[in-house]
Design brief:
235 residues; alpha/beta; eight-stranded parallel beta sheet; 8 strands; 17% strand
Length: 235
């Protein structure tokens, strides 16, 4: 897979979520659903019943980002409900390998999220158990925050770890992703981009998705990490 854009419905109009999801259908690769429980993060959004309702209504695959305490207990349920990707925070997981395997066994891609201050190096051995790593580029909990440039070296290091192990692993960024930051993220090594305000704050969300994709694709094509992967080619 190349560049993927996952609009965050955290920035959408919650009074008409299904219609808001339809506004990006055909342009977005995923719908990013932020689940917050007011325990792991100081905010409360939505939970499994809303996700189950959305899954019955939308055609775009759903990417659930669980910012919750005790994901070991709750995360597999989102996969069982039909989410295409379920991401847990490693800071909250008690047994991340077992949890990743449970998510995969339930039929979803397993993702591991790291807060800005969490070192990716310490979790290198977990990478083969995962389908995606999410590097938070803001502190989790609220939409509309400013992008943290200090996280860019961690994105680069995560890309190096993925390439060094020859893994088919997506690298997602979430937080402050916009027209002014997406190229830096792509250059650093991200290939899946969560964008909330930059999409749903636009007059035409679908067009905003297309423009973000074009920027990310251009930056990726010029990025050293992508050129190295292309030159390596298949064995």
């Amino acid at each position: 897979m190349g560049v993927q854009i996952s609009p965050s419905i955290l920035s959408a109009d919650f009074s008409r979520l299904a219609e808001e999801c339809d506004r990006v259908a055909g342009a977005a690769d995923w719908l990013h659903v932020d689940v917050m429980d007011n325990h792991f993060v100081p905010n409360l959004t939505l939970g499994l019943p809303i996700v189950e309702s959305l899954l019955k209504r939308v055609s775009t695959p759903v990417d659930c980002h669980l910012m919750i305490a005790d994901p070991d207990r709750w995360a597999p349920g989102y996969a069982e409900a039909g989410a295409g990707s379920v991401t847990f925070h490693v800071e909250a997981a008690h047994a991340p390998i077992r949890l990743a395997r449970a998510i995969r066994a339930a039929g979803a891609r397993a993702g591991m999220a790291l807060k800005p201050a969490t070192d990716v190096e310490g979790y290198a051995d977990l990478l083969p158990e995962l389908d995606m790593v999410l590097i938070m580029t803001v502190e989790p909990g609220f939409g509309g925050q400013a992008f943290l440039d200090v996280v860019l070296p961690k994105i680069r290091r995560a890309r190096e770890l993925i390439a060094g192990r020859d893994l088919d692993l997506w690298l997602q960024v979430d937080g402050g992703v916009s027209a002014s930051t997406i190229e830096r993220c792509a250059e650093a090594g991200a290939d899946v981009f969560v964008a909330g305000s930059a999409v749903y704050g636009a007059d035409d969300p679908a067009e905003a998705v297309r423009r973000l994709r074009a920027q990310a694709e251009t930056a990726t094509a010029a990025a050293p990490w992508a050129k190295s992967a292309e030159s390596a080619g298949p064995e």
